[in-house]
Amino acid sequence: MRRKASMVLAAALALTTVLSGCGNGSEAEANQTYDPNAKLNFTWLNILHTASPPTDVVKNKLEQYTNSEIQFSWVPDASKEERITTALASGQLADMVTITMMTNSTVRNSLKSGLFWDVGPYLDSYDNLKQIPQNVREAASIEGHLYGVPFQKNLARSGLILRKDWLDNLGLKVPTTLDELYNVARAFTEDDPDGNGKDDTVGFGDRSDLRYSSFKTLSSYFGTPNGWAVDDSGTFTPEFDTPQYMDTLNYSRKLYENGYLTRDFAVTAKTDQQQQFAQGRTGIYTGMVDIASLENMSQGLQKGMELVPVNKISNGDGQYHIWSEGSGVGGLLAFPKSEVKSEAELKRLLQFVDDLLDKEAFMYMTGGIEGEHYEIDADGSFKIINQDKWQADVQPFAASRPSEVTYKLKDSNPRKEMANELIKENDKFAVLDPTVPLDSQTNNEQGTELQKVITDATFRYIMGEIDEAGFKQAVQSWKDAGGTKIKEEYEAAYKVVQNK
Predict the structure, then answer these.
(1) What are the residues facing 334 on neighbouring strands?
(2) Would you say 475 and 460 are in contact if contact means Cβ atoms under 8 Å apart?
(3) Which residues face 71 on adjacent strands?
(4) Helix, strand or coil, per DSSP, at residue 2
(5) Are 16 and 44 in contact (CB under 8 A)?
(6) What is the pLDDT of the chain when averaged over all its residues?
(7) Which residues contact 307 (CB under 8 A, 6 or more apart)?
(8) Taking a C-beta distance cutoff of 8 angstroms, is the pair 176, 312 a contact?
(9) For residue 14, what pLDDT is reported?
(10) Residues 6+ apart with CB under 8 A from 410
(11) Helices 270-278 and 291-298, interaxial angle, to 10°?
(12) DSSP character for 150?
C-alpha cells in the first residue's frame, strides 16, 4: 500500500462503519461514515476501444494500488451509443459509468434528470481532483452542475496521418493546403504509390462516423464552425447551414466521385478503416493519435511503411483551424444514485478516481509494468518493449485514464512524439463549440434523432444520391422538426451566461 494509504490507516481502524461495497446500499447505509481506505468493491461500466477486453495483469495492479476490487462491464466502442442509452433507459447501470457521448440527447437528459450525483461540491476535497481546471469543470457541466468527474483530454487531437513513403515514391511533398491534399489523394489512388503495378490503393480511408471521419477535420480546414457559430449579437447558426460546410460537402463529393475516397466509407467501422490502412490499401487516415497503433498493426503485413502526422492544412489563405473535442473534456466518470446510495459510497469512489490520477496508477494504465511492458530510456523516453503483451494487458486501459494531460511522457517513437507535439500545437488554433457549456431541452430530447437527418443527408450528398437542393431540404426538415427551437434555446442560454 502506498504512503497516502498508510498515513490514514489508523483513522480507518477507528471508524465504526466500513464501506465494503457500492450499489447494494440500504437506508441503514445512508448515514455511513466515509473511510478513504476501506476495501472498495464496485462495478464499472466502461468503453472498450480495442478488439478484446484486457487481461487481469494491469487490473490486479490497479486494484492493489487503490485497495479495490473492480468488476468491469466492457461496452465495445462501436456499439456504445446503443448500449449506453439502453442502460440509461432501463436503469441497468454500474456504480461508475463511463459516459463519452456528452451531446447525445438521451445521455444529456439522464444527466439533467438527477439520475447521477453532482460531484462538483466534492472535488476540492481530493489532492488530484482539486487540480482539475475551472474551465474544464465548466465545459463538462450542465447548467452549473457537474454530473461526474471530467475526462481531461487535449483540446484538439484531430489531424491526418499520411504514408510518407508513398509521398516519396511519387515525388510529392507533405501537403499544406486543401488543393495539395486533394492532389495527394488523387496520386495515392491513380499513380501506383506502392509500386506493385496494381490498381489497388485509394487515397482516403474513412468510416461511418461523421464526427471522427475525415469530414469533420476537412470541414475545419475549410473554416466551418465547430457545431455552431455565434455572432456578436448572440445569433446561433448550425455548422451545416454555412457556406464552409457546403464547400466541404463538394470537396468530399469530388473525392468520392473520382474514387479517391473509399467507396464503402459509410458502412465502415473504425477497426476496419485501420486495417485497410495497415494493409496498404489506403494512404490517408484521420486521427494523429493512432499513428503508433497503425505502425504496429502493419507489422507482418507490409514492409517499409513510413508515416507522417499532419496538423496544419489551410484552405489557401494560410489560416489554420481544427475542431475541439468537447473543449478539452472527453466525457464523465459518473455515479448513478440508483447504485451509489450514500454520500459515503460516493466519496469512496471519488477517492478511487483521485488515486487513478496518481502518477503510479497513470503509468499502469499507460504503460503497464516497467520492465515487463515498457522501459524508460536513458534520455527519459518512454518505450514499449513487448508490443503484444502491452496490447493484451494494457492498451484497453489507456482510454480509461481520467486524464491524458496531467503527466507528459516523451515517446521513444519519433513519429508518435511528433504527433503528440502537433496535438499540443493544435491548442493555438482550436475552434471551440460555443454550446458545450449551454443547455437546450429540445436538443436533449430530440438532438440525437435530428442529427441523424443531417448525417444521412451529408453521406447521401457525398455519394451523389442528392443534390444541393436535397441537402438544403434536409436542413429545413431539421429546422422544422425542432432545430429552430434548439437554436432559440441556445441563444437564450447564451444570453444568460453573457449577462452573468
Answers:
(1) 97
(2) no
(3) 43
(4) coil
(5) no
(6) 91
(7) 161, 162, 163, 164, 291, 294, 295, 415
(8) yes
(9) 36
(10) 379, 380, 381, 382, 417
(11) 60
(12) E
Residues 58/298, Cβ–Cβ less than 8 Å: no
235 φ/ψ sector (left φ>0, alpha ψ -120 to 50, else beta): beta
Q: Does position 1 have pLDDT exceeding 90, yes or no?
A: no
Residues forming a β-bridge with 457: none
397, 373 contact by CB (below 8 A)? no
Which residues are within 8 A (CB) of 6 and not within 5 positions of it... i.e. 6 or more apart?
Answer: none
**Predicted confidence (pLDDT) per residue in 25-68, tens digit:** 433 344 467 788 899 999 999 999 998 999 999 999 999 999 99
Instruction: Give alpha helix (H) positions in 23-151.
Output: 57-66, 80-90, 105-112, 134-140
* Nearest alpha carbon to residue 402 among 140, 13, 82: 140
Containing 250, the helix (H) or strand (E) segment is helix 243-257
Question: SS3 breakdown of the chain: % helix, strand, coil, rounded to 5?
Answer: 50, 15, 35
Grid coordinates in use for 243?
457556406
Q: Within 10 A of 178 (CB to CB), how many other CB atoms are there?
A: 18
DSSP 280: T
Residue 166 neighbours by CB distance under 10 Å: 25
CA atoms within 13 A on the CB side of 251: 25
Q: Which amino acid is at 345?
A: E
pLDDT confidence bin for 8, thresholds 50/70/90: very low
Q: Is the pLDDT of residue 254 over 80?
A: yes
Burial bucket for residue 121 (CB in 10 Å: 0-12, 13-18, 19+): exposed
Burial class (CB in 10 A: 0-12, 13-18, 19+), 97: buried
pLDDT at 9 over 50: no
CA 185 to chain CA centroid, nearest Å: 26
Q: For residues 162 and 188, what is the distance between their CA atoms, to the nearest angstrom?
A: 10
Q: Which amino acid is at 228?
A: W
* Interval 178-193: pLDDT, tens: 999 999 999 999 999 9
How confident is residue 326, by pLDDT bands cut at 50, 70 and 90? confident
- Is the pLDDT at 23 greater than 80? The verdict is no
- How does DSSP classify residue 437? T
Q: How far apart are CA 199 and CA 192, in angstroms?
A: 7
The half-sphere exposure of 69 on its side-chain side, counting CA atoms within 13 A, is 7
The residues near 473 (Cβ < 8 Å, ≥ 6 apart) are: none
User: Per-residue confidence at 498, pLDDT binned at 50, 70, 90?
Assistant: confident
Alpha-carbon Rg for the chain in angstroms: 24
Determine the Cα–Cα distance for residues 157 and 299; give it in Å rounded to an integer.
Answer: 25
pLDDT in tens, 108-143: 889 989 999 999 999 999 999 999 999 899 999 988
The residue type found at 421 is E
Question: Do 448 and 456 touch, CB atoms closer than 8 A?
Answer: no
Distances, alpha carbon 106 to alpha carbons 77, 83, 334, in Å = 17, 12, 15
Looking at residue 32, its pLDDT comes to 62
